[in-house]
Amino acid sequence: MNKKYTAAVIGGGAAGMAAAIACSEKLGKGSTVIIEKQARIGRKLLATGNGRCNIGNNRLSEANYHGDKKIISSVLSYYTLNKEKRFLADLGLILRADNEGRLYPYSNRASTVLDCFRYRLSQNGVIELCDFNTVSIKKENDFFRISSGGDTVFAKYVIISTGSPSSPSLGSDESGYRLLESLGLKKNTLFPSLSPVICKEKTKSLKGVRAKGKASVVADEKIISSRIGEIQFTENGLSGICIFDLSRQVNEYLKKGVISGSIYSNVKISIDLMPEYNESDLIGYLRKCRSFFAQRDSVEFLSAIFDKKLSAYVCSYSGIDNKKCRSITENEIKIIAWLVKNLEFTPEKISGYNNSQVCAGGYDSGIVFPETLMCRKIRNLFICGELLDVDGDCGGYNLHFAIGSGLLAAKSVK
Ligand SMILES: Cc1cc2nc3c(=O)[nH]c(=O)nc-3n(C[C@H](O)[C@H](O)[C@H](O)COP(=O)(O)OP(=O)(O)OC[C@H]3O[C@@H](n4cnc5c(N)ncnc54)[C@H](O)[C@@H]3O)c2cc1C
């Protein structure tokens, strides 16, 4: 195999598929190849949003992204929310939003999204080259030589979209970074983001419990960020969308003792299990519970509002003896109310790439021109998707960026 193409897209994820669609639309059938090391393209896309694919968000804003500000701004001004809706509608996809503005395909199935992308790739005559693990790229005159060790293809333009090492069970690894490093391109340090947090407290008894609440990062006794939503307890800490969103700051603190440039000596995650209630209303409710559930064991004191395991955890954490609810004292009610509003966890580390949704760090605007995503040092070589030093919050922001950056990278291909 020694075929020549005008454009080669290496990595068949969301960014690569979008880039290949845009290239082929301009260059015509047979001009573009999408190269994928796995047996099929789009494997990670199928796993997104728990199989529902949260593809964007009606509340899109630069504030939901972290990393290189110039690249974030350039991609979001090129790929606006309206442009996203038009691009997806043009593939036959219509969306619906949940209460948080998260956008999903109308079918609620990630497979629909992948089918629509693949259908357009095939209609546009894009060549899908799967089971091709790219191990080297070299520039030879006006063409790049792309090799898997055995097979080789040539292309005038190369867009690299090989993604990050997050979730290796979906085939992810660091091979894209190695390719770019072999071309002399240096990345910023990588670290897992949108990840569960491992905590010091013993949470084994809570494994699998989910609760709606407000989670906050409390640094030196000051709340520095909060998220409302679902919190999941794991056998060694915390997970769920709220925690994923806070994990970046927690990781920064654990690694460097710093969050957004400020030094802190003590960081906790505090959970308010009933954010709609203030402490005095909650005390009033707990007093009623004391008489409603007079004959129940004290560990079940909160089981009318929480999962039984969570009720037992909070009650035993509060130090009340094993007795009947009717014997719970006024002081104990105050302690329990305080704990319900301020259940604290001490982060020890961030769960690694096995459980993270994205990877922070990567290639920044010192390596690529933010306006085009072309490498400053290597003409006609573009980088997009998660390889770039940009990561978004939970809520569809990462797929929005992946697709938008793929389309932006393809813009300069002629
Ligand atoms: C479980 C999970 C759920 C998620 N849910 C959401 C969600 O609902 N909404 C959201 O916005 N984001 C979500 N994300 C994040 C989002 O999926 C990623 O940010 C996005 O898919 C990145 O797209 P990408 O194209 O850059 O990389 P990827 O999708 O990872 O694609 C990279 C592709 O390149 C291929 N490749 C790698 N190396 C080579 C090589 N050397 N040669 C050839 N091919 C190669 C890989 O096999 C892969 O197919 C989720 C992530 C995970 C792990």
How would you characterize the overall build of this protein?
The structure is a single chain. The chain is of the alpha+beta class. It has helices at about 15-25, 45, 70-80, 80-90, 110-125, 175-180, 240-255, 280-290, 310-315, 330-340, 395-410, and strands spanning about 5-10, 30-35, 55, 65, 95, 100-105, 125-130, 135-140, 145, 150-160, 190-195, 195-200, 210-220, 220-235, 235-240, 260, 260-265, 265-270, 345, 345-350, 360, 380-385, 390. The strands form six sheets. Strands 1, 2, 7, 8, 9, 10 and 22 form a seven-stranded mixed sheet that branches. A hairpin with a 2-residue loop joins strand 16 (about 260) and strand 17 (about 260-265). Helix 1 runs parallel beside helix 5, helix 3 packs across helix 11 and helix 8 (about 280-290) packs across helix 10 (about 330-340). The protein is elongated, with a radius of gyration of 25 Å. The relative contact order is 0.19. The protein binds flavin-adenine dinucleotide (FAD). Flavin-adenine dinucleotide binds near residues 12, 49, 167, 172 and 398.
Keywords:
seven-stranded antiparallel sheet; 414 residues; alpha+beta; single chain; 2 domains; binds flavin-adenine dinucleotide; seven-stranded mixed sheet
In terms of DSSP E residues, the strand content is 25-35%
CATH class of the largest domain reads Alpha Beta
Rounded Rg: 25 Å
Task: Compute the average pLDDT.
Answer: 95
Bound molecules: flavin-adenine dinucleotide
Helix content: 25-40%
Total domain units: 2
Overall geometry: elongated
Q: SS-based structural class?
A: alpha+beta
* Distance linking N and C termini: 24 Å
> Spans with pLDDT under 50 lasting ≥5 residues?
none
| Annotated CATH topology of the largest domain | FAD/NAD(P)-binding domain
Per CATH, the superfamily of the largest domain is: FAD/NAD(P)-binding domain
Q: Which architecture name of the largest domain does CATH use?
A: 3-Layer(bba) Sandwich
Determine the number of helices (DSSP H or I, runs of at least 4 residues).
11
Number of strands: 23
Largest sheet: 7 strands, mixed
